[in-house]
């Protein structure tokens, strides 16, 4: 068991879950997060029972209380209910699956953890005594156990596995959010949602999704997605090589395409109103996967560097199970470290890697099914 704290890069769902589980096992850990304070991710995520139920013992909370506190409509005594038919893979969905508010979930996971907010990683460097973390504030931290949980754009991975690249899937996707006054929601949105918190509409291979992110007494936060398969290599809406910084640069062709949607009923008609969309923040999403090779993971493990979640096996936002994968990785890795120390992580990779590879394949099948 390492005497110095395990250094976890990233305080997202995976890193926080890992940190909470290590705390439960009495293993010291420090998390380093580039964001200046606990972020309020004001959107919903789908949680499935196999991921969140085992976590409840760690969090010392019962299922009813957990769902009531985390559900996107929990403030109004809702349970984040999802209609199984909404998903391309309905077998994953049952009455124990629900939509949770990510910000509330992460706030719960943060409790009791040593998190250094606003302390981002610049690069990782190998040294004779171990690995050195170069932080953007000038710190140089030596460590014999580093765990990269810093998401699909992982600096940890890019530093040590620079040849691992994204696989960009041939889909166009855009996302936005809106706050709706309670009166409008009750009269226009609620009848369409009909007790669920997700609804969808298809026009050919174009898919429109609406999600409830959070219900409050006077307003409701919703988000939307527009997606379709890429048309060809010259599709103006499919920009597989765009940098992260250009995610908000929305081409005119997007609004032209939205304008061509005809016969939309409410609430889709109001959400996809061109004049409103042009005034709001719209994001261009790339549907990407990442999988670090098993051999490279084992090589880095021998040097004291490990990975979980999207930093090592990312799935696309649409069709993927990133949040659930991160929870399971965090719980299982903490259990491995508590039993076998970091020396057992290479064997843990052996057991988890087939599921990671299979998950990416299933996510690609799921996004294809969505758009048929």
UniProtKB/TrEMBL annotation:
Q: Which UniProt keywords apply?
A: FAD, Flavoprotein, Monooxygenase, Oxidoreductase
Query: Which segments constitute the FAD-binding domain?
Result: 300-342
Pfam families according to UniProt: FAD_binding_3
Biological pathway: Secondary metabolite biosynthesis
Keyword NAD listed: no
Q: Does the keyword Flavoprotein apply?
A: yes
What cofactors does this protein use? FAD
Source superkingdom: Eukaryota
Molecular function, one GO term? FAD binding
Family to which the UniProt record says this protein belongs: Belongs to the paxM FAD-dependent monooxygenase family.
- This protein's name: FAD-binding domain-containing protein
């Amino acid at each position: 068991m390492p005497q110095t704290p395990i250094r976890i890069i990233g305080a997202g769902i995976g890193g926080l879950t890992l940190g909470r589980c290590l705390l439960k096992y009495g293993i010291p850990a420090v998390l380093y997060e580039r964001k200046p304070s606990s972020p309020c991710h004001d959107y919903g995520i789908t949680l499935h029972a196999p991921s969140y139920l085992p976590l409840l013992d760690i969090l010392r909370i019962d299922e009813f209380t957990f769902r009531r506190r985390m559900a996107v409509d929990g403030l109004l005594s809702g349970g984040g209910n999802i209609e199984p038919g909404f998903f391309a893979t309905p077998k994953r969905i049952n009455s124990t699956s629900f939509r949770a508010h990510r910000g509330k979930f992460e706030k719960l996971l943060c409790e009791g953890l040593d998190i250094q907010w606003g302390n981002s990683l610049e690069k990782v460097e190998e040294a004779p005594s171990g690995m050195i973390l170069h932080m953007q504030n000038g710190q140089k931290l030596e460590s014999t156990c580093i765990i990269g949980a810093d998401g699909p754009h992982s600096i940890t991975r890019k530093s040590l596995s620079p040849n691992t690249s994204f696989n960009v899937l041939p889909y166009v996707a855009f996302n936005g959010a809106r706050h709706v006054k309670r009166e409008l929601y009750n009269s226009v949105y609620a009848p369409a949602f009909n007790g669920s918190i997700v609804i969808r509409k298809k026009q050919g291979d174009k898919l429109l999704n609406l999600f409830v992110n959070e219900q409050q007494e006077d307003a409701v936060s919703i988000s939307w997605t527009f997606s379709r398969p890429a048309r060809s290599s010259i599709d103006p809406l499919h920009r597989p090589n765009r940098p992260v910084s250009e995610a908000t640069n929305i081409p005119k062709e997007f609004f032209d395409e939205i304008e061509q949607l005809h016969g939309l009923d409410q609430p889709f008609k109001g959400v996809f109103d061109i004049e409103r969309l042009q005034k709001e923040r719209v994001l261009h999403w790339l549907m990407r996967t990442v999988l670090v090779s098993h051999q490279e993971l084992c090589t880095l493990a021998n040097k004291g560097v490990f990975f979980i979640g999207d930093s090592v096996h990312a799935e696309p936002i649409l069709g993927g199970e990133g949040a659930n994968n991160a929870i399971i990785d965090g719980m299982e890795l903490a259990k491995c470290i508590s039993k076998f120390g970091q020396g057992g992580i290479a064997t843990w990779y052996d057991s988890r890697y087939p599921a990671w590879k299979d998950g990416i394949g299933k996510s690609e099948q799921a996004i294809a099914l969505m758009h048929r």
